[in-house]
Design brief:
Layout (H helix, E strand, L loop, with lengths): L9 H8 L3 H20 L1 H27 L5 H23 L1 H29 L6 H21 L7 H28 L1
Helix pairs in contact: 2-3, 2-7, 3-4, 3-5, 3-7, 4-5, 5-6
Length: 189
């Protein structure tokens, strides 16, 4: 496929975005406002996060159930059907009991942070001969400590931790969109 068939190069794609720089700023401001709202009510933001995860799991389950009818063997059919039914049930349960779901998700996040942090510290320690390995070790240590702090506060912190992550993400993404918008404006000339 040649570039003349309508596919833009990265430079052409960025150039076409320069005319839309204002939309990035508006989107960034909207995300900042939503982040502020989320910080103002972390419980609501946690429930919104859980519902987002729940709808994603529910859709995945439905797709797997539909896929089950397209497989050729009974063994595969039952595998996909049971897998899809379990996914769909998990999605429905997040809507029926979002606080239980937030508790489960929070402990999984704690375990993932702890495991990831320990692994990064191990990789850094194995890379002691490389200049700057200490930064990777410190980053892994901070990640592991975040996992420990979340685990120590569990299950009470599961009422607000997901909401806080959502709020932080919205604020940082908002600032990133605003910076990108102003960057595109300066490229426009």
């Amino acid at each position: 496929m040649s570039l003349s068939s309508g596919i833009k190069t990265p430079a052409q794609a960025i150039s076409s975005l320069t005319n839309k720089w204002g939309w990035f700023i508006v989107l960034g401001i909207l995300m900042l406002m939503l982040g502020g709202i989320a910080f103002g009510n972390l419980l609501f933001a946690t429930v919104a996060s859980v519902y987002y995860v729940g709808i994603t799991i529910l859709i995945a389950g439905i797709v797997q159930i539909i896929h089950a009818f397209s497989v050729q063997t009974w063994k595969s059919f039952f595998f996909w059907m049971i897998s899809g039914a379990l996914y769909a049930a998990a999605g429905v349960l997040t809507f029926l009991n979002p606080f239980l779901a937030s508790s489960i998700i929070t402990i999984f996040i704690a375990a993932a942070l702890l495991g990831s942090g320990v692994f990064r510290m191990w990789v850094a320690f194995q890379s002691r001969s490389v200049k700057g390995w200490g930064w990777m070790f410190v980053g892994g240590l901070i990640t592991a400590l975040a996992g420990i702090v979340i685990a120590i506060g569990w299950p009470v912190n599961s009422l607000w931790i997901l909401g806080m992550f959502l709020a932080i993400d919205l604020v940082f993404q908002g600032w990133a969109m605003i910076a990108l918008g102003f960057g595109l404006k300066t490229m426009r000339g």
